[in-house]
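ok so for the tutorial part 2 we go from a plain amino acid sequence to predicted structure tokens. step 1 is just haveing the sequence, like this:
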Amino acid sequence: MNQSPPVVIKKKRHSFLFRWRIERVIDRIVRKETSHAAEFEAFRRTVQGSLPSRSGPPILHAACNELYYWEFARTFLRSIESIGAPERFHLHLCEPSSDALRDVEVLAASLPSIDLTWTWDQGENATLPVYPTIYYAAVRFLIAPIIIEASNSTVLCLDIDGIARRSITAGFEELAGSEDVRLIKRPGQKSVRRVLASALSIRPTKAGRRFADRLGRSIATILKMRPRYHIDQIAIVRIVEAMEAKGELETAQMPLSFADHEFDDDSIIWTAKSWQRKNSEAFINAKGAVNGAFAEK
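step 2 — the prediction. this is what the tokens look like for a chain of 297 residues:
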């Protein structure tokens, strides 16, 4: 199994020059619908596997590398299954081994409540940024517009290192409104931290599709600029702000219960954002309970 240890990025910010370069790219993409389309199409050609192909309820979507598949994805999916409510889920795997691809097929057959589809790439995209983890964090936002195009369904992008505590789709549909995009805004934070990318939904409205397309083209292009830090948050913030300023996008607040880092009992998803939280007693115990229940079947 290809389980490389996680990479910790020590410098947690972009240089002023690189931020300027990112903003130039996004400005071009927002102004012109064909700008940097070739970069996104180059990414699309690397994607293998099966996509959800019918319109229907929201599709939960997450992505991970080999390490996170074995450590977190299987637990997340099992936690969703343990609740017993019907869900649609699309998983994207980054450079999976043949063991992982065989396992996800077996796993899908063991999860009757989940309509699970999956795609993968061979890892070529993870070599574009300085640290592969930058790609692993951003790839779900590259896959999202492809899912929307294939299924004409809302996509709810989530962190893979989560544990479902209640039905995710049922909780999400309670929020249903007219928004194109729902995301966790943090107005008290500065710069790119104004958005938490752990849970973000995109509806297949005209504006939602445009947002997803712009985000995909932006991330595909910025990856080729050899970034040294994460790019998903800064791209989301800049595109949302640009579209909102022109009245092109309606957004709404995503409750923190969809990405709860504090592990509140009433939350929908517990998300272990840091390795400190991943190794916490509460999260380890919750993982053990989920996986232990499946081992007993």
